[in-house]
């Protein structure tokens, strides 16, 4: 499955239909870029000690729940939010999380 941005059709909570740029997460859930940007900004910048594992898929019905760091990194890079990515990248927990992901891929 491709994680590339693509134009998709959304109906937002306010009932307005719109064509937006969307992103399909590795878990399979798809969101408009504006919604994901707001979600990541809120999760990363409002928490003093961000723990990557606490950033989960915004879809409450997602069967996987966990969000892959690749999704977070891709979106923050493309929207130009390097300061948020740097905040995550400087954490020891990020290194532990990446090791955990690599270890899980080896099984």
Describe this structure in words.
There is one protein chain. With 107 residues, the chain is α+β, with helices and mostly antiparallel strands. It has a domain at 32-105. The chain contains 4 helices and 3 strands. It has helices at 33-45, 69-78, 82-89, 92-105, and strands spanning 6-11, 17-24, 30-32. It has a 3-stranded antiparallel sheet. A hairpin with a 5-residue loop joins β1 and β2. It is globular and about 40 Å long. The chain starts with 5 loop residues before the first strand and ends with a helix. Mean pLDDT is 69; it is low at 1-10. InterPro entries: Znf_RING/FYVE/PHD (IPR013083).
Share of helix, binned: 40-55%
Major sheet attributes: 3 strands, antiparallel
Which geometry do the CA atoms define?
globular
Average pLDDT, all residues: 69
Strand content: 15-25%
Quickly count the helices: 4
Provide the gyration radius in Å. 14 Å
Question: What's the β-strand tally?
Answer: 3
The low-confidence runs, each spanning 5 or more residues with pLDDT under 50, are 1-10
What structural category characterises the helix and strand content? alpha+beta
Terminal Cα span: 21 Å
Strand order of the largest sheet: 1-2-3
Could you give the order of the helices and strands? EEEHHHH
InterPro entries: Znf_RING/FYVE/PHD
């Amino acid at each position: 499955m491709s994680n590339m941005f693509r134009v998709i059709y959304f109906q937002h909570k306010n009932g307005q239909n719109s064509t937006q740029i969307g992103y399909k997460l590795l878990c399979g859930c798809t969101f408009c870029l504006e919604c994901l940007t707001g979600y990541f900004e809120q999760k990363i910048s409002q928490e003093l000690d961000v723990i990557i594992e606490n950033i989960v898929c915004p879809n409450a019905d997602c069967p996987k729940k966990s969000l892959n760091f690749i999704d977070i990194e891709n979106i923050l890079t493309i929207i130009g939010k390097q300061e948020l990515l740097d905040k995550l990248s400087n954490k020891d927990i990020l290194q532990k999380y990446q090791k955990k992901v690599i270890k899980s891929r080896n099984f």
